[in-house]
Each structure stands twice: as C-alpha cells, then as structure tokens.
Fold these 2 entries.
Entry 1:
Amino acid sequence: MAETQPRVLVSQAEIRRRVVELAGIIERDYADAEEILLLGVLRGAFIFLADLARELKLPRRIDFIALSSYENGSDFAGGVRLIMDSRINVTGKHVLIVEDILDSGRTLAYLLETFEARHPASLRSCVLVRKPGQEVPVDVDYVGFDIPDEWVVGYGLDFGDHFRALPYIGVVEPAAHEPG
Ligand code: IMP
Ligand code: MG
C-alpha cells in the first residue's frame, strides 16, 4: 500500500498541548497516591503512553498488555482476549489503563472488568481519542480528543500497521484504501 499522506485531524501541536494538560489533571487527581501504574495497551497506545509518562511528575511505573479481538463467533467475553498480561501484580496498586481509542467500548469494558477483579487500590482509564456512539457502556476517566467516526491513524494508530509513526492524528482518505 502506498503511504499517501493522511489528512490532519489533530495536529502535533494540539496533541502536545493536550498531553501536557492531561498530565496536569492526572497529577492533581493522584496527588495522594504513593505511586501509579501506567498500563499501556499495545500497540496503538505506545506513543501516547511514552509522551504522557514523561510529562507526569508522579512516581510511576510502566507496564504493557496486549489484546486480541475477534470479529465474531468468539468464545471470549465481548470478543476481546488478553494475549499478553502485565508483569506487575496490580493488586493494591493505583492502575491507570492507557488506551488508544474508545470506539464500541468493548475493549475498555473488558479491561476494566478484568483488572477490577484483581483488586487494585484504584482503577481508572485514559484514552487518546473517543469516537461517538459506544455500544457498550463504559466509564472513561480521561479523554484526549473527541473525534468523528472516521478511521484515524498516526501517533501510534495504524491502518494495517502503516502510519503508526506519523506525528499527528490523521484520516486516511478513501483513495488510500484501494490497493496499488
Ligand atoms: P472498541 O473495543 O470498539 O472500543 O475498539 C477499540 C479498538 O479498535 C482500539 O483499541 C483500536 O485498536 C481499534 N480501532 C478502532 N477505531 C480505530 C481507528 O480509527 N484507527 C485505528 N484503530 C482503531
Ligand atoms: Mg487498541
């Protein structure tokens, strides 16, 4: 696939400003916490997590989890399954899940249920972008940007593993979906 330049939806400067702003809000919310555990969801959240983690001035640890999702015919709750678990035991920890996108809500609902069952001291979630119209009700604590229902790429987000390293959040124009 040719990597034609996606149209800018959220610029690098806007992302930068919002990450700084979110870090400030998170710092205030966790002012009394001894330490927080940032749990990044691979792969889409890796750049967002890297920037957010470096901006935060709280004692923090970082770990990653990876998921596999199933379109249909799944045996797993919500069609989502944990394929790589955290190495750090979350029991008694202040856990902040850092995810790329909130779309149907299935992924985040699954993660919140899975990690709540392990009795963290607290459990919150932060997503870079939220699309409209969740099919599953889910409580999200921090949202970077509310965006329209379009396929977005860049800043960690992909289209067939392309575009992850773009410094901005963009939309792939229909022509780019066509082969060749
Ligand atoms: P949900 O379970 O429907 O909320 O799915 C969200 C997941 O789908 C995200 O973690 C992304 O991995 C993926 N996803 C949904 N929309 C997009 C998009 O526009 N670009 C890239 N990935 C997306
Ligand atoms: Mg994801």
Note: The chain has one domain: 7-70+91-177.
Entry 2:
Amino acid sequence: MRVIFLGPPGAGKGTQARRAAAQWGGLQIATGDMLREAVATGTELGRQAKRYMDAGELVPDDVIIGLVGEALDRPETRQGFVLDGFPRTLAQAEALDRLLEERGLKLDRVVLFRVPDAELLDRLTARRVCRECGRNYHLKFSPPLRPGVCDACGGTLYHRTDDEEATVRRRLGVYDRDTRPVIDYYRRRGLLEEVSGEGTVDQVSEAVRRATEPGR
Ligand code: AMP
C-alpha cells in the first residue's frame, strides 16, 4: 500500500500509521518524527526547524520535500509506505506528485481522519510521548502503567513543547489555513477516504482497514 494519512494534529495519524506500516510491512514516513530526531541530535536541519516547530508553524516546504524525497529512496518503501504528517500544503502535495512520478510510483489512497477541534485540544494537551519509541499516551484515557514510563519499551515520557495549549491552537489554525486545501486536492482525484478518528485505537484501525481495502 502507498497511502497518505491526512488530518489535524492529534487526530491519531501517528498511532495508526505505526500500526498500518507494521501490518503492511512498509515504511512509516513521519515528517514530524524526522524533524524531532534532527532537533534531538542537533543537526543543522534540526537547528533550522526548531523555531518553526516551537511556534507551531510549518517548516519551509523545500526542507520537508527534500526529507521526503530521501525517505522515498529507502529500500523499505518497496513494500509500500504510509506518509504521516505530509503533505501539509498544496505545494507539498504537488511536489509529492513529482517525487512519485520520478520513481514510477502511484498513490493508492488518502485517508482523512476526522476529529472535532475540542477533542483535539484535549488530546494534545494531555498527550505524553515516549522519547525512545514514539508511543503516545493520554494522561486520562490511556495512561501508562507507571507514571512517566513507556509500557512498551521503558523509555521516558515527555510533553511536547508544541502540545502546550497556546501552540496547539496555533497548529489547529495552521491546519485550517494551509492543510485543508490539500483535502480537496485529493478528493478531486478520487483518492480520498474519510474515517472517524474518534473511538478506541482498535475501532479506528478497523475503520482504516475498511478504508484501504483493495478495489474500494
Ligand atoms: P507533527 O509531529 O506531524 O505534529 O509535526 C510537528 C511539527 O513539525 C509541525 O508543527 C511543523 O512545525 C513540523 N512539520 C511536520 N511535518 C511538516 C510538514 N509536512 N510541513 C511543514 N512542517 C512540518
């Protein structure tokens, strides 16, 4: 499968992309994770990206497009990929078309996760993320067994600085302004499938499975 998971921050794209890629055997290409890794290791890219990320703004298109191009050249993508957090602007969507065409690849589906804004705000401000494996927790609805420690790998959980309320509001505004047009871009091409991002992780996984069934 070659799919895009589209939707606002906090919709569950990352959690579902991790599951789907493991199930399908392809590569999860999560631009946010790639940028956070660059920030953590202190590379030039990380240094440049950090100020945009901390402000809840988008990192410039050319930087992100370069990253995705490199990821698409990794051998694991032969079994497919799940793009998670990309494309976020029309320019990125158009660039992705070129990247895929150059490689003779076609998109199978774009899955849009729908979640009301009030719930997104609640999910993100209560979200904790594992520094090691990236797994997400919600302090109230899916807390870790031991506070601050990842159930899966024992890594330390942290609160992303861009998950503070003011920055979350900014990110939701950026989504409305820059990413909503991307939805229509794929709807017009008949690639879009919508799923509800509400409910349990298993329920959403099941909706994603149905939305990505071949021949749909
Ligand atoms: P995410 O983990 O997907 O919520 O991304 C965290 C932050 O990384 C975003 O708020 C942006 O600053 C940056 N980022 C991630 N993906 C992109 C993208 N496709 N285009 C521009 N900025 C991005």
Note: DSSP finds eight helices and eight strands in the chain.
